[in-house]
Design brief:
This protein is an alpha+beta fold. It is built from 23 helices and 35 strands. Helix 6 packs across helix 7. It comes from Pediococcus cellicola.
């Protein structure tokens, strides 16, 4: 078997299945699109779910892909085993209701053993099958697999709960006795067992059943094939590598890390773990950030932050003290550039994010070390021998300390760590994360109701908003295909329609359906795409509609026109944001309504008011320039040559629609747009906010809504001008500034008077020294403006040194405040203000704390202040 590079292997796999009539699906973004059940794209089939559950019918039923994926459910194993990774590539071929077991098995064997392709030795390949799947066994034997190389395994049934399921076949490669890590009589020493000799390289799932909610299985209306081949594993075979890490996918990263650390890979087992973790995590964070995810404290952002921190910690184990992880980004880009050129295109941005997070972690790490030192000191002082699982998890969750690092620190101090308690905390966190993602099932039950409707339907709404010759072809009512739509809700498909189906953030058109006599027979409430691409109209039926009858379809033109304006505005906004913030900014979602538009975009950092003003100026200038908006339909490659911007969340067919706003904005888009930018009239941003890690949201209005927005704000400004007695509106800012200066001066005078009054009051209370046990005490309820005045009295008391303890209370509105101060001399004896304040704060239904010499508390019961002072005297007497 000839040695091959990872890029050669990937290409050969895709080329093989392309030769068998498959279309190559590009690797989708790691950030799932419209799938709340997934934190990350975690397999090749994850991007095919819409085809397998029947919600979308692909243009071609045969597909193949090399899909980047992330899994972090067993992150602690990364670096310690030969093949655990957070980021990996899954090669796969898929059939959606087309070929099945015989073709899948025949082609798999051809790819693996043919001299033209992988050219593996057939004697080194072993197959596992589901015991009841006699067809699979028969087909494997027919392609030449010896009977003793086919093993029946009861676990060979792919089932994730409700949805498609079925038996599978796993293919194993015998790496030879030198890789054997088990005794000859070990029960796991066989192809399919847990061992290092027989390496699983491919899993072929024969999806033929629907697992129903009641637990039963029924045959799928359309049987599917879903396969997965781990690229990293196959590369290790072709390159005869002991583990996946000694391949061209990881070694360049490891060698670069060697140059930072001065240490050498393959010299020490513990060092090797660190090199592997860093190489793995560098790949994952590079791709994740490149796909728009950013470090944060929740969701996928938390995963990125954790991976960065884990890699940095292992870097420190190798003696790397400075930021280094960001310098591995271009190394990852060079390795993957043949199939993922976008990594190098975005390397500057990705490096900036990683370096910033590394620097931030350096500060956090210092805080974590201090906390760990405090925990260890406290445990030893209390003669405890174990750090609790809760404390270990806090170090991990808040400060990024891996458990093994906490264990090492503890061992150096003669302490243990409650690992079981840590795992319990970890499981609780995972349960919270699962709950946050909701109860959506990962793949819907396949239905053939809409899938089997293949009626041709043509959308003409780009040029016509009324069609007077639409023939009703299909009616779905009460989950049945019927010939007549009765009163109530129904779904309709026409041979031609002017109604836009919701897509690309643009909402669906609304309107009416009339018969040839002019009677309104239905109101169109929503329009969505059916699995085979037809526009599916959800309507309120007013009078019965018959299939094969002709109807007049009329879009609400006013509604449609307002949507068009806002959709064109999103294109202008998309480009303007790139102009202001840089090319790394990407669209992360949009909503185009008739009354406003919402646009989400990726951006690392805050957005200032000046930034927003720049964006507004650019867009309004483009409106005033009266730029023509044109659309062309062309092939995908021609569109890319035009410079059209594509969304990574969208899949594009052979023919694409490109919308150009002059030469300023060129984008792939299937939506509706104005003919000229002047139709927008005006553009105004109404809000900007953060909606997630590295994702910002702008809401804006155009045309009449923009005018109304500005008019409302002008009225507010005029009202303010009248209130501040400005002669003209333009004088309002200066008048407000004058009022602020006057207010500041008056506030200073009031503060001065309050301070003077407090000092006069102090002269009286400081003469009233009482005795409580061994302590001299001043305790009183005073009338001051707030806690700051109480603190000033405490400062005055400290200078005068008139007593050991000071207890003051005051009422502010409906709230009570307490302050306790203790002289430095008494603090040295062990008396603490914080202990005293906590003892008496309950009298005012509150709580508090502070330093040993000064503490304060707040509560909701002013009537309890005198009792609080009395309790303080009693507490000191008993001290």
């Amino acid at each position: 078997m000839e040695r091959k590079s990872s890029s050669e292997i990937r290409k050969m796999f895709l080329d093989f299945f392309q030769s068998k009539g498959h279309i190559i699906e590009p690797s989708a973004s790691l950030v799932p699109h419209d799938d709340p059940t997934l934190l990350w794209i975690n397999s090749g089939v994850a991007t095919m779910k819409k085809y397998f559950d029947g919600s979308v019918v692909p243009e071609v039923p045969r597909l193949t892909s090399s899909q980047k994926s992330i899994r972090t459910n067993d992150i602690e194993n990364v670096g310690h085993t030969a093949r655990h990774h957070t980021l990996f590539e899954m090669l796969g071929n898929f059939s959606v209701g087309d070929y099945f077991k015989e073709e899948a098995i025949t082609w798999a064997w051809e790819l693996l053993t043919s001299p033209k392709w992988f050219a593996m030795d057939p004697q080194k390949l072993f197959i596992t099958v589901y015991p009841k799947d006699t067809d699979a066994k028969k087909y494997w034997e027919s392609v030449g697999v010896p009977a003793d190389h086919i093993i029946a395994v009861e676990d060979n049934f792919w089932d994730i709960g409700e949805g498609p399921s079925g038996p599978d076949s796993e293919i194993f490669y015998d790496r030879g006795e030198s890789f054997n890590n088990l005794a000859p009589d070990d029960p796991e020493n066989y192809p399919g067992g847990e061992n290092e000799r027989y390496l699983e390289i491919w899993n072929i799932v024969f999806s033929q059943f629907n697992h129903k909610p009641d637990g039963s299985y029924e045959p799928l209306p359309h049987k599917n094939i879903d396969t997965g081949m781990g690229l990293e594993r196959v590369v290790s075979i072709f390159q005869n590598a002991p583990t996946n890490f000694e391949t061209d996918l990881f070694l360049p990263i490891i060698h670069k890390t060697e140059s930072f650390s001065g240490k050498t890979y393959n010299e020490d087992i513990e060092q090797d773990v660190a090199f592997k973790v860093i190489a793995d995590h560098a790949r994952a964070i590079t791709f994740a950030i490149g796909d728009g995810a950013l470090p944060s404290n929740e969701g996928r952002g938390y995963v990125i932050r954790r991976l960065i921190r884990r890699a940095v910690m292992y870097g420190q184990k190798l003696g790397i003290e400075k930021n280094f992880l960001y310098q591995l980004v271009p190394v990852v880009g060079e390795i993957m550039k043949s199939y993922y050129p976008e990594v190098l295109e975005q390397k500057d941005y990705i490096e900036k994010v990683v370096q910033s997070e590394e620097s931030r972690f350096s500060e956090t790490l210092s805080d974590g070390v201090q906390l760990l030192d405090q925990i260890i000191t406290t445990k030893k002082a209390n003669q405890k021998t174990e750090i609790s699982g809760t404390d270990a998890f806090k170090l991990f969750d808040t400060y990024g300390f891996p458990l093994d690092l906490t264990v090492e620190y503890a061992q150096d101090e003669g302490l243990k760590v409650d690992k079981a308690g840590f795992e319990q905390e970890m499981q609780q966190q995972k349960q919270r994360a699962r709950a946050a993602r909701g109860n959506q099932v990962s793949m819907g039950v396949q239905s053939d109701l809409l899938t089997d409707i293949k009626t041709a339907s043509r959308y003409v709404g780009y040029s016509e908003l009324t069609v007077d010759h639409a023939v009703l072809k299909d009616v779905i009512q009460d989950d049945k295909i019927v010939s007549t739509a009765q009163k109530g809700e129904a779904q309709l498909i026409f041979d031609v329609t002017p109604f836009y189906a919701e897509m690309g953030g643009q909402v669906a058109d609304k309107g009416t359906i009339t018969d040839t006599h002019g009677n309104v027979v239905a109101e169109v409430k929503d329009v969505q795409h059916a699995p085979n691409g037809q526009n599916l109209h959800t309507v309120k039926v007013l009078r019965p509609l018959e299939t094969e009858e002709t109807y007049v379809l009329k879009v609400d033109s006013h509604f449609h026109s307002k949507v068009e304006k806002n959709h064109t505005a999103t294109h202008l906004l998309d480009q303007a944001l790139r102009d202001v913030f840089g090319s790394h900014t990407k669209q992360a979602g949009s909503l185009v309504e008739p009354d406003y538009l919402r646009f989400d975009f990726t951006h690392f950092g805050q957005v200032t008011q000046e930034d927003l003003q720049k964006v507004e100026r650019i867009i309004n200038q483009k409106i005033f320039d009266e730029i023509p908006v044109t659309t062309v339909e062309t092939d995908l490659e021609s569109a890319k040559k035009m410079g059209a911007i594509a969304l990574f969340t969208e899949k594009y067919g052979k023919k694409v629609r490109v919308v150009s706003i002059g030469d300023y904005s060129i984008e792939f888009c299937g939506g509706d747009h104005v003919k000229n930018t002047n139709e927008l009239g005006l553009f105004k941003i109404v809000s900007e906010s953060g909606v997630g890690a590295g994702v910002r949201r702008i809401e804006a209005v155009t045309s009449a809504e923009a005018y109304e927005y500005l008019l409302k704000h002008e009225q507010l400004l005029q009202q303010t001008a009248r209130e501040v007695k400005a002669i003209q509106v333009k004088d309002t800012p200066s008048k407000v500034a004058q009022l602020q200066t006057s207010l500041k001066e008056m506030t200073q005078k009031v503060t001065t008077l309050e301070t003077k009054m407090a000092k006069q009051q102090a002269a009286g209370i400081f003469d009233q020294v009482k005795q409580a046990g061994q302590y001299s005490v001043i305790a009183d309820v005073v009338k001051v403006s707030g806690m700051s005045q109480l603190r000033e009295l405490a400062d005055d008391w400290k200078q005068r040194q008139v007593s050991d303890v000071l207890i003051l209370g005051t009422t502010i509105g409906e709230k009570a405040n307490l302050l306790v101060a203790v002289s430095d001399e008494k603090v040295k004896t062990g008396l603490k203000a914080g202990d005293l304040i906590r003892a008496i704060a309950k009298e005012i239904n509150g709580g508090g704390g502070g330093r040993p010499n000064l503490a304060q508390a707040g509560g909701s019961n002013p009537a309890g202040l005198k009792q609080a002072l009395a309790s303080g005297m009693t507490w000191l007497t008993e001290k």
